[in-house]
Design goal:
The complex is a heterodimer. Chain A contains 15 helices and 2 strands. By secondary structure, chain A is mostly helical. Chain A has one domain. Chain A has a two-stranded antiparallel ribbon with strand order 1-2. In chain A, α11 packs across α12. By secondary structure, chain B is mainly α. Chain B is globular, with a radius of gyration of 19 Å. Chain B has 12 helices and 2 strands, in the order αααααββααααααα. In chain B, α1 packs parallel to α6, α2 crosses α9 and α10 packs parallel to α12. Chain B has one domain: ABC transporter involved in vitamin B12 uptake, BtuC. Classes of the chains: A mainly alpha, B mainly alpha. Chains A and B meet through α5, α11 and α13 of A and α5, α10 and α12 of B.
């Protein structure tokens, strides 16, 4: 049902709503990765805006400065860069857990934010850089109007990336590797005694989630045509943790639902009042206090718990 | 001339450090006792700034003598700290038995709400007091011209630091706070009402933040983003100094304040970049900070 609806949406829905689906799909990719760290490994990163920023700026620098237009190349370069940065950053961060992990990731995220802000020759400072329209699968779609491009080919391309990302993540979390991550989360001492290197598995999860965040970040750029440092600001990291909690971190599709509800609810609220933060802050407070399982926890009830154990 | 410049930079840094110390001290006392890293302490700072500015404007508008503006300013900054009780009793009290991830997220919810409450109340344009910054004149200090107001704030912050030290080490309440920070169950078993302690501690932490915000306001304009910007600096302070340590907040604030002032003067591109590098270096080499006691 949902799959069919997503497929025909560009044909039936007004372009406005189709365009809103684009950030949703980008965030869904990011959150699938973030939840490998948050839901499955038990580490809350407050610095994942760093990797979204890397992905988004990779796309911008490649298209604007280096003349590379292929979105496949952009995604690949983002993923590789994300992994290259995440490898040393993750190695330092995963030595800590809980609040210390969150703080160290936040510090790295803000380091990158300051870098984006201050090295304006490369990054355009607080103005950011333009993202030129990328070609998809080798097709140069420069002649198509912007709406037709975004609501047509780009929409299906993003959807393809999201589906691919979801399938990969599904395989990851349902593999022995995914099982190890959950053991690391639930009982690190036992995992260690069974021969699972806790820090190494945390590091794997960190790098994989960074690759997802970078790839998703690269998808965020083209719809707006511009990237700026707020993408890498710490509140952005907070927002994606919020989305994950909103959907339900204990469920595989919880983060996807969270991204969807967040994007569309934010749009609805902002069309009425500009104070979406006030309302969303209240929602977040409500979730934390009364429904830490998120929407999936509310709707699926017991089932959510089963899936998290599966 | 050269010393004058140097003194100017240093005094600017120390003024900033004095404000940072107040906010960071609020963060520390809450973390030390309640084990909650309060992301909203920057938002309390912003709230204090706006309320302080409003109070001063109302005061001068009613014909109060400009020389006394610091009285309504400080009073407003302290009084608005009572939101701490509301937040603690109304929100945080529900999540003490939860994972600290949820506590952190709850304070993030506060950040979001307070930012818009400020926008809703005072609008989006920068909000400031009429020119009172130099109401106390300026003094010449080793060739530099320093506003007397800055010296007052630095003095007040020092006095508050000493006051907190006295409170923690010489009073019954301080002993209870330290006992609660050390071993909550034992303190409770010995008859300490933790709910009251938590409410008081959180209010103290909030009031330190709001006072910091109020005191900064004659020198700058209040902006709705000032809270989320300051929290990352306060965060740097407590990491460098060590989570939960008052001495750490003091030294950390000086390090961050002066470092930042020097970086801005020497090579502006480096500004906060330097601070984050110091933070990461401290977290990697000495995760408990310079004065922290609790091992990770």
């Amino acid at each position: 049902m949902a799959a069919a609806a997503v497929l025909v949406l560009p044909l039936v829905a007004p372009p406005y709503h189709v365009l809103l689906m684009l950030p949703f799909m980008a965030y869904a990719v990011i959150l699938l990765g973030l939840n490998l760290l948050f839901g499955y490994t038990g580490l809350v990163s407050f610095g994942h805006a760093l990797f979204m920023g890397i992905g988004a700026y990779t796309g911008a620098v490649l298209t604007t400065h280096l003349g590379v237009r292929s979105l496949e190349v952009i995604l690949l370069a983002s993923a590789v860069l994300g992994a290259l940065v995440a490898a040393p950053v993750g190695a330092l961060c995963v030595r800590y857990v809980k609040i210390y992990f969150s703080m160290l990731t936040l510090a790295f995220g803000m380091l990158f934010y300051t870098f984006l802000l201050k090295f304006y020759r490369l990054t355009g400072g607080d103005e950011g850089i333009r993202v030129l329209r990328p070609s998809l699968l080798g097709f140069d779609l420069g002649a198509v109007s912007k709406i037709d491009y975004l609501a047509g080919p780009y929409y299906y391309y993003s959807l393809g990336v999201l589906v691919l990302a979801a399938i990969c993540m599904w395989r990851i979390v349902h593999s022995p590797f995914g099982l190890c991550l959950r053991t690391v989360r639930d009982n690190p001492a036992k995992a260690e005694s069974l021969g699972v290197s806790v820090t190494r598995y945390r590091w794997y999860a960190f790098v994989i989630s960074a690759v997802y965040a970078a790839a998703g970040g690269a998808l965020l750029g083209p719809p707006t045509g511009n990237v700026d440092p707020t993408l890498a600001y710490w509140t952005h990291s907070g927002n994606i943790v919020f989305m994950t909690l909103l959907g339900g971190f204990a469920h595989f599709f919880g983060p996807v639902l969270g991204a969807f509800v967040f994007i569309f609810l934010q749009d609805t609220v902002m069309s009425v009042v500009p104070y979406w933060r006030l309302i969303f802050g209240a929602i977040l407070a409500f979730l934390v206090i009364f429904a830490p399982g998120g929407l999936m926890g509310l709707f699926a009830g017991r089932r959510a718990g089963e899936v998290s154990r599966a | 001339m050269v010393t004058g410049n140097l003194v100017n930079i240093l005094m600017g840094g120390i003024f900033h450090a004095a404000i940072l110390f107040l906010v960071a001290a609020g963060l520390q006392v809450v973390f030390g006792v309640q084990r909650i890293f309060n992301l909203a302490c920057g938002s309390f700072y912003a709230l204090g700034a706006y309320v302080g500015a409003s109070a001063v404007n109302a005061f001068t508008g009613a014909g109060g003598p400009p020389a006394l503006f610091i009285v309504p300013l400080a009073l407003a900054g302290l009084l608005v700290g009572v939101v701490g009780v509301v937040v603690e009793r109304g929100l945080l009290a529900f999540v003490y038995d939860r994972d600290e991830t949820f506590q952190l997220l709850l304070t993030f919810a506060l950040v979001l709400m307070l930012e818009d409450i400020v926008r809703l109340t005072w609008g989006t344009a920068p909000y400031s007091t009429s020119a009172l910054y130099l109401a106390y004149g300026q003094v010449n200090l080793l060739g530099a011209t320093v506003p007397v107001y800055n010296l007052i704030v630095i003095g007040a912050s020092l006095a508050i630091a000493l006051g907190i030290g006295w409170l923690l080490t010489r009073t019954v309440f301080g002993r209870i706070i330290r006992a609660a920070a050390d071993n909550r169950e034992m303190a409770e078993a010995l008859g300490v009402d933790m709910r009251r302690v938590y409410a008081k501690v959180f209010t103290l932490g909030t009031a330190l933040g709001t006072l910091g915000g109020a005191l900064v306001i004659p020198a700058t304009a209040a902006m709705s983003e000032m809270g989320i910007e300051l929290i990352v600096e306060a965060f740097a302070v407590v990491v460098i100094g060590g989570l939960g340590s008052m001495r750490g907040a003091f030294v950390g604030a000086l390090v961050v304040g002066v470092f930042r002032a020097v970086a801005i003067a020497v090579y502006p591109e480096l500004e906060m970049l330097m601070i984050y590098l110091v933070v990461i270096a401290v977290l990697v080499l000495r995760p408990r900070g310079l004065f922290g006691r609790v091992a990770v």
